[in-house]
Amino acid sequence: MAENQENESAIAAVASEEKVSRANRSTKVGTVASDKMTKTVVVRVDRLVRHRKYRRYVRRTSKFMAHDELGATVGDKVRIVETRPLSARKRWRVIEIVQKAAK
Questions:
Q1: Cα separation of 66 and 43, whole Å?
Q2: Cβ 45 vs Cβ 29: under 8 Å
Q3: Confidence bin at 11 (pLDDT 50/70/90)
Q4: What is each CA distance from 89 to 54, 59, 74, in whole angstroms?
Q5: What is the Cα Rg of the chain in Å?
Q6: What pLDDT shows up at residue 22?
Q7: Taking Cα atoms as reference points, which of 68, 69, 63 lies closest to residue 31?
Q8: What are the sequence ranges of the domains in the chain?
Q9: Secondary element (H or E) of residue 100
């Protein structure tokens, strides 16, 4: 009985040490449009979409509210990653500042 419990505890320890695989989180690169909130920035992400009728590329813009512990300022190019909901509109986190804005 005691031997069986030792085996189970050893198996549990090994299982906890193994890295649990997680689905790939979506990442985007954009520029900071606003940093007026505390620990939150608004990131503008541009993408090119082909027009269905004219076959030209049109720029589309999306804005994402992102949690910022790194201190990004307006104009910085940042990489954001999808995360759990942090507030009513915040579901992204800044993971790195790719390029600082020119002053």
A1: 7
A2: yes
A3: low
A4: 35, 24, 19
A5: 21
A6: 81
A7: 63
A8: 24-99
A9: none
Q: How far is CA 75 from CA 47, 95, 99, 102, in A?
A: 17, 16, 9, 8
Rounded Cα distance between 18 and 10, Å, is: 13
- E-strand ranges in 9-89 read 27-37, 40-50, 57-67, 77-82
| Closest among 75, 64, 57, 58 to 26, alpha carbons compared | 64
Mapping DSSP to helix (H, G, I), strand (E, B) and coil, where does residue 3 land? helix
Which residue type sits at 66? A
Contact call for residues 78 and 94 (beta carbons, < 8 A)? yes
Best CA proximity match to 32, nearest among 23, 21, 19, 41: 41
The two tokens of residue 78 are 């940042």
Which two three-digit tokens encode residue 102?
């020119």
Q: pTM of the prediction?
A: 0.76
**Is the CATH number of domain 24-99 2.40.50.140?**
yes
Q: 18: burial class by Cβ within 10 Å (0-12, 13-18, 19+)?
A: exposed
Residue 92, token pair as written in the block: 């992204």
